[in-house]
Design brief:
Order of helices and strands: HEEEEEEEEEEEHHHHHHEE
Number of helices: 7
Helix content: 25-40%
Structural class: alpha+beta
Strand content: 15-25%
Number of strands: 13
Radius of gyration: 57 Å
Distance between the termini: 141 Å
């Protein structure tokens, strides 16, 4: 009988020793990030297990509600970390919890199941507690209105459509104004900028040079065309230079217009103009056949008339006080 009791005691002691050796190096705990919160606030509850690599640890199944009315809002997946060279592992699971009961709240222990070589043992975490505080209400002031929500400041992204819309409206208004202004002045809306007008003598001398290069007087049937070109060139020059509508006047009317303005032409220029116009009229209307020298004389007189009556660019010398040098302005 004494031998049987002794055997039982030895078996129990071996079980305790084996269990303590089995659980050696394994730690489980539950850590809460805050112990005092307002009602409705959320807390983070962290479950941790430290174990050897060859152990198998089963985390407890957690529902949406713990004991004492503590609600589980969210659960994270398991995160595993290697701690040291002994291949010790740390496994973490985060729970987001809350409670709507004021006062002391106790998180119950969590039970973990350890398995190794067909051996199994349960380990529990220590309880964790936190306190939930209600909102203090000032009863001395009586009922108060609910505060309206604060208006958020307007961001650039929100204001951009209105800014772009305003720019577009202004652009359309400007285009309409520009369009009617151009139409009012009888100008094309998208016309090219007009080139600066050339001086009358530049145009006339260029046209006379073309006539000389053409040598129309060498062809009998084009002599009339030659004299018409010379006289027409001078008439256009006279209109642009003196404001006399020579293209629409007869030769006598043109000469008469210059007679009324005695100081406009020198006597030599006036004489050259009369000879050119009179000879051109004889060739064009009286079928007069001028001599070869007349061709050259008429063309040379036209060149002399334009050069003698053209308006030269005036050159003014102005002293620049900043540089102390003379600057030539045209």
């Amino acid at each position: 009988m004494r031998s049987l009791k002794l055997l039982i005691v030895i078996v129990c002691l071996l079980g305790l020793v084996q269990g303590s050796l089995f659980a050696q190096g394994i730690k489980v705990k539950a850590v809460i990030d805050s112990t005092h919160v307002l009602i409705g606030d959320q807390l983070n509850l962290r479950l941790e297990v430290e174990q050897a690599k060859d152990f198998k640890v089963e985390f407890p199944q957690i529902s949406d509600t713990l004991d004492n009315g503590i609600e589980v809002m969210a659960q994270s997946p398991l995160d595993t970390f290697k701690l040291d060279e002994k291949e010790q592992l740390k496994i973490i699971k985060n729970l987001t919890i809350t409670s709507f009961d004021t006062g002391r709240n106790v998180v119950p222990p969590f039970k973990f199941k350890l398995v190794q070589n067909n051996l199994q043992q349960d380990m529990e975490t220590l309880p964790a507690e936190f306190f939930v505080h209600g909102m203090e209400i000032d009863t001395t002031k009586g009922p108060t209105d609910i505060k309206h929500p604060y208006a958020a400041p307007v961001t650039l992204a929100e204001a951009s459509p209105y800014i772009l819309g305003a720019i577009l409206i202004l652009a359309i208004a400007f285009f309409i104004f520009y369009y009617f202004q151009r139409r009012k002045k009888n100008k094309p809306v998208f016309g090219k900028a007009a080139k600066p007008k050339e001086a009358p003598h530049v145009v006339a001398l260029r046209e006379l040079e073309h006539i000389r290069e053409g040598k129309l007087w060498l062809e009998p049937d084009k002599i009339k065309l030659f004299y018409s070109g010379v006289s027409d060139t001078l008439r256009i020059y006279i209109k642009e230079r003196f404001g006399i509508n020579a293209p629409e006047y007869t030769s006598d009317e043109t000469i008469q217009a210059f007679t009324k303005q005695k100081d406009v032409l020198t006597e030599k220029s006036f004489s050259q103009l009369k000879e050119i116009l009179k000879l051109s009229d004889l060739v064009k209307f009286a079928k007069y056949q001028p001599l070869p020298d007349d061709h050259n004389l008429s063309l040379m007189n036209a060149f002399f008339f334009v050069n003698d009556t053209k308006l030269e660019d005036r050159k003014i010398e102005v002293k620049d006080e900043r540089e102390g040098e003379e600057v030539e302005l045209k």
